[in-house]
Structure formats: structure tokens, C-alpha cells
Design a protein that fits this description.
Length: 155
Amino acid sequence: LAQNFTFTGTVAGAGGGKVLQVVRSTLSSTTYTTSSSFTTFFDGAITPANSNNYIYALLTYGVDLYGATTTEPQGAIRIVEGSSNTKSDMPLRTTNPGNQQYEREGGAMSGYWQAGGTSALDINVNVNCDAGRVGLWGNGGHTNATTLTLFEIEA
């Protein structure tokens, strides 16, 4: 654009959508599970300023999927508000033939929902394992390998 134009006035409906706060949690050490039940690996908390605002949860992770003899490792990962309100879930799978071999991968997932209140929200990262062994990388041997970043977005 070769010209500048002076703007005076307002734009209707231009409010909202601003990031009001960001809270970040990091998995402190590499953690594994062989349990078919979902286990909380780590969590984060955010307190919304307004019940109409939105929460955006972004999980980035490093994962190890270990096979066992002839078992292809598999499980799932979830972002959960409280103890059971799943906001996002994703399978963790590989075509690894087993034989004690493993596959290392990285991934990301997210969830977006209306806060619904102004009390602190506990957001959990839950993992299960249906076969083999599943692990998320922690800060022990990696830097910020698995993080949960929570954003409050103005309505």
C-alpha cells in the first residue's frame, strides 16, 4: 500500500479476543505408564477474570512409545478440566513391531472452551497405555520437552 489514510471513528464489534493471561506448566521429569487407566502426569491452573471469557489450552509434548516382544505400543493423551471434563484427546499409536523397540515422537494438541466461572480451573494432562509402555519427556534430560500453556482469551 503506497498511501497512508487517517482513521477517525470506531469499529463496531472490535472488542474481545485479547489474551488476558498466560500460565505455563512443565513436566518436571520423564514419566511412564503401563496402566490402562488414565493417570495425571502433571497439571496447570488458571483463574478466569470473567465467566464469559475463553480458555485455550496448548499442550506440546515429547513421547516415548515402547513395545514389548510382539506388542505395538499404544495409548492416549488428554487435556482434562478437573477430574473428568475432557477438553481434547488424542491416540498415541505406532506401527512399531515390538521386540523391546521404541519410537520417539513429538506432538501438540489443544482445547478451547468458555470458562463458565471465575474460580480457579485445574487443567490436567492425563495419559494411559493400552499396550507396551507410554512416556512423556520431562525436564530431566530435555528442556521444556512437555509443556501445558493456558491462555485466558477475552470474550
